[in-house]
């Protein structure tokens, strides 16, 4: 495993663990550098940073911005941002507006499909009501026995064309890149393999993103297959984009990839941590076990 995770979530958005517990779990898994990237909100970053310092884990403030591109919702991660940046704060406030109305419309659609009480049920899972999301509805639907897991819920009820899907206008691609850069961060397209787009559409998305000054794409993440790793490795290299990695952790039972590390694969493109100046042990150190007893490298993060 590579001891870095640049994409994870807490109860500030749609994760199941509070920020401090996410960081502690990552540290227990041998993480050396961590970015907390909650959806459209920065509230957990101070607690996460303090907890990371207590555990000797390097910490990068982050965010994951919801973006509307053509008829798709795309997610963009901002890494090493300044949470005090006014432009970013104002932009995220705009993105968060309208979630409550959208949630009501989602609940109405689910009720017509025979799933009652979804609005109240979803809010029970939302520690931050301002960030009510599809993930909260998914957990309620699993609780009610309508699907075996949250992945199945999304496929049956919450994606485009299904009864609980409601289109919402999020940030534009250009706005998201601009806000992240205004905050001094790097803009990264999250989990590009998840978007329902053909090869030509994906090329258009990445080309437009690159033209707007975007910095990288996620290559290794929990929703990508091993084939996706290689595919997006090559796409990042060919587009001149940085290669990023992250578990996209939400809850222990919702993903096979735990917070705190990602598969250690060679990257053809320039790794994002090189652009960020992060100190990571070389792959041969990881393989040879030249690590401290807690799983981190002997030298602490810079």
Structure description:
A hairpin with a 2-residue loop joins strand 3 and strand 4. The chain is an alpha/beta fold. The chain has a 7-stranded mixed β-sheet. Helix 1 packs parallel to helix 2 and helix 5 crosses helix 6. It folds into 2 domains: 163 residues, Metal-dependent hydrolases (TIM Barrel, Alpha-Beta Barrel); 60 residues, DNA polymerase, domain 1 (Orthogonal Bundle), CATH 1.10.150. It is built from 12 helices and 7 strands. Helices cover 40% and strands 14% of the residues. The protein is globular.
Task: Give structural attributes.
7 strands, 302 residues, DNA polymerase, domain 1, alpha/beta, seven-stranded mixed β-sheet, single chain, 12 helices, 2 domains
**Any idea what the radius of gyration is?**
19 Å
Alpha-carbon distance between the two ends: 20 Å
In the CATH hierarchy, the third-tier topology of the largest domain is known as TIM Barrel
Helical content band: 40-55%
Number of helices: 12
What spatial order of strands do you see in the largest sheet?
A: 1-2-3-4-5-6-7
| Second CATH tier, the architecture of the largest domain | Alpha-Beta Barrel
Mean pLDDT: 90
Q: List the helices and strands in order.
A: EHEHEEHHHHHHEHEHEHH
The residue ranges in which pLDDT falls below 50 over 5 or more consecutive positions are 283-302
Determine the strand fraction and express it as a percent band: 5-15%
């Amino acid at each position: 495993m590579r001891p870095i995770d640049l994409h994870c979530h807490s109860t500030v958005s749609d994760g199941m663990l509070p920020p401090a517990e996410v960081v502690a779990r990552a540290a227990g898994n041998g993480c050396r550098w961590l970015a907390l990237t909650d959806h459209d909100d920065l509230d957990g970053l101070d607690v996460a940073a303090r907890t990371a310092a207590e555990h000797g884990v390097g910490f990068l403030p982050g965010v994951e911005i919801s973006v509307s591109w053509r008829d798709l919702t795309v997610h963009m991660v901002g890494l090493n941002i300044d949470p005090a940046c006014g432009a970013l704060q104002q932009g995220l406030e705009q993105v968060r507006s309208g979630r409550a109305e959208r949630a009501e419309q989602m609940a109405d659609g689910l009720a017509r499909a025979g799933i009652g009480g979804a609005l109240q049920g979803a809010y029970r899972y939302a520690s931050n009501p301002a960030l009510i999301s599809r993930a909260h509805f998914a957990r309620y639907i699993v609780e009610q026995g309508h699907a075996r897991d949250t992945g199945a819920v999304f496929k049956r009820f919450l994606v485009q064309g299904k009864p609980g899907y409601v289109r919402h206008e999020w940030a534009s691609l250009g706005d998201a890149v601009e806000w992240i850069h205004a905050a001094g961060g790097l803009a990264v397209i999250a989990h590009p393999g998840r978007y329902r787009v053909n090869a030509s559409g994906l090329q258009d998305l990445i080309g437009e993103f690159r033209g707007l000054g975007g910095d990288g794409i996620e290559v290794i993440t929990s929703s990508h297959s091993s084939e996706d790793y290689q595919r997006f490795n090559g796409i990042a290299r060919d587009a001149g984009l940085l290669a990023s990695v992250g578990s996209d952790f939400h809850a222990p039972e919702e993903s096979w990839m735990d917070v705190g590390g990602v598969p250690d694969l060679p990257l053809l493109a320039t790794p994002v941590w090189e652009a960020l100046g992060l100190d990571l042990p070389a792959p041969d150190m990881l393989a040879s076990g030249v690590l401290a007893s807690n799983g981190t490298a002997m030298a602490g993060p810079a």
